[in-house]
Amino acid sequence: MHNAKAEVTAKPSEDSGNRWTFLTNHAHVLIVLHREPSIVLREVALKVGITERAVQRIIQDLEEEGFIHREKVGRQNQYEVLTDQPLRHPIERHKSIGDLLQLVSK
Questions:
Q1: Domain coordinates of the chain in residue numbers?
Q2: Which end of the chain offers a freer environment for a tag, N or C, measured as fewer CB atoms within 10 Å?
Q3: How confident is the model at residue 15 (pLDDT cuts 50, 70, 90)?
Q4: Are the beta carbons of 96 and 67 closer than 8 angstroms?
Q5: Rounded to an integer, what distance in angstroms lies between the CA atom of residue 9 and that of residue 29?
Q6: Could you read off the pLDDT of 35-48 as tens digits, one per residue?
Q7: What DSSP line would sit under 62-89, residue for residue?
Q8: Helix (H, G, I), strand (E, B), or coil: what is residue 96?
Q9: How many CB atoms within 10 Å of residue 48?
Q10: How far apart are CA 10 and CA 12, in angstroms?
Q11: Bridge partners of 71?
Q12: 96, β-bridge pairs
């Protein structure tokens, strides 16, 4: 069952022939977790266009750095994005995760 509101294209636009995007896989995973807090790793991987193992590593990074909180609910994880955390790079550190999520929200 797919939620059209939360769909994320796994493939970058091929209009220009380039295969890069402005946001990193870490940002893409964060966006997906914010939109669908109880999503399973396989679905995150499909939406972002990376492997499940890569999603696991990214979630571990995000959790260790205090950007997300993971809670086990039954047999499933529930994710909370900590939106008040500042972005990491000095150029954008004056903005928060919430600012980024607001920018890319539908």
A1: 4-104
A2: N
A3: low
A4: no
A5: 12
A6: 999 999 999 999 99
A7: HHHTTSEEEEEETTEEEEEE-TTSBPSS
A8: strand
A9: 21
A10: 7
A11: 78
A12: 86
- Got the DSSP string for 2-46? --GGG---SS---TTS----SS-HHHHHHHHHHH-TT--HHHHHH
Residue 41's CB is within 10 A of a number of other CB atoms, namely: 16
Instruction: Kindly report the average pLDDT of the chain as a whole number.
Output: 89
For residue 85, give the nearest of 77, 76, 94, 74 by alpha carbon: 94
Whether the CB-CB separation of 55 and 61 falls below 8 Å is answered with no
The CATH code of the domain at 4-104 is 1.10.10.10
Which amino acid, one-letter code, is at 30? L
What does the alpha-carbon distance between residue 67 and residue 96 come to, in Å, rounded to a whole number? 10
Long-range contacts of 73-78 (CB under 8 A, 24+ apart): 73/38, 76/38, 76/40, 77/38, 78/37, 78/38
